[in-house]
Each structure stands twice: as structure tokens, then as C-alpha cells.
Amino acid sequence: MNILLVCDSPQLQAHLLQVCQSYYGVHVWQDFPVSTPPDYVVHLPLVAQRTLYTSVADMAPYQQASKQVDSLLQQARAWGAGYLFLSSQQVYVAGHRISLQEEDHADAACELGTWWIEQENKISCYPKHFIMRTGYLLDQTSLESLLEKMRQQTWPQDEETFCLTTLEDLSRAILGILLQNFHHPKGLWGLYHYTGHEQSSELEVAKSIRRLAAEHEPLPDPPEETHARSVPRLLNCRRVLDTFAIHQRSWKQDLPKLVNQIYSHSLP
């Protein structure tokens, strides 16, 4: 199975390459031109713009990513390759009181949400597509940013709840979808939701990090939880479980490794 990987995050790229290396016969290219037409084009754009604690103010990267979608989709058509696009929960407005399924109407009206919907609409016209919606991503960069805020006693709010997805878990799910589809006689193309398991607030995430960081450095005490939380925007991931038997994994499983990596890299 041959994959052309287009990803703007070195961290996610490294995780996906590592997962692919554990499977015999999976080959990944990261640059044009490719020696053999790939079976899949995997497009994972704007990773930094969807990590936890990231504020999106500049639409320029989105405009560039839109051109990239057009180009890669055209190339996938020419090759007859599958096209997997990593989309976002931003297609929905916040405030839904039940978890959102793939067939629920994408109702975002803001500029950012509309951008994601436009990309999905373009891609869904190509029969051999996967659109994979996810929520907030958790990586080393966002953890380092949070640790710095905690040192300055700038704690996150306890208002919003969400299901985090680590880059390692996301990579595992992406490859699971591609491998099973590769061996399916008709293909399992379409739209799928995938996030990590276990709903949490920003403050709960910070407290978990503080407990793990305690053996490396003392951090200030967190504030009390308010429990005055907004209605979340949660993705129902039942379809990916029923179709591919891919189970959601808690972000807490990968957190000790992420925290240890941060402190090991900071040692002189």
C-alpha cells in the first residue's frame, strides 16, 4: 500500500510514519514527484490551528490550504487514488446537547466553520474520499504552552468540555481506516468522526499534566473547579467503530509519554 502524505505538522508526520513502519508493505512518500502512483493521498492540513489552546486569528493559512486541497484532489483523480482529508468539528456550532453524528447538518456560520464546510463539499464530490472530522488535538507544543501558563499561574478556564485526541492516537486511527479499506472489495469511503475518548475540561487537562510534572518541577496549585460549563460540541464516533472496529482511546493514555518527552528534551 502506497501513501502520499501531505502534512504541515512535523509531530503528526513523525507519529504517522512511525505507525506505518510497523506494517510490512506500507510505503509513505512525502514529496512530489512520486515514483509510483499512490493508493492514497493523505492530506492533514492546519494541524497547529486545531491544537488545544490555539487561538485562530489569521485566515491566510486556510486560504493556502484551500488551494492545496484543489491541487491534491485533482492529482488524486488523475491517479485514481483515494483521498483522505482531516477535517474539523468546527463545521458545527457549539451548543448541541447530544453528540453529533456524521449525518447531522453542518450548521457553522462563522468564517472558520464555513471554510471547513466548503472543503468538505469539494472533496465529497470525488467518490474515493475519506473525510475524517476530529476535535482538539493534543501535541507537545500545546503541552509546553500550557506548562508555561501554569508556571505563570495563568490557569485555563473550566468552562468548555471536549474530547481530546493525541497525535499518536489519530495516526493509529488513520492507518486503520486506510488498511481496512485497501483490502475491502468495494471500499468503505465516506465521512467519519474520530476523537479521543473521555470528555474533559481545560482545567481537568491542566490538573492531569500538573500531577505528571510534579516529579520534574513544582507547579502552583490550581483554582477550584467552577462547573459552570458551556454545552459542548462532541462528535459521535460510533460509525468508525462499527465500520472499522477502531476504538476510541483516552488522551490520558498518551499523556505520561508526552510529559516525559518534554522534560527529557529540556534537560541540559
From TrEMBL:
InterPro entries: NAD(P)-bd_dom_sf (IPR036291), RmlD-like-bd (IPR029903). Residues 66-262 form the RmlD-like substrate binding domain. It comes from the Bacteria. This is dTDP-4-dehydrorhamnose reductase. It comes from Allopseudospirillum japonicum.
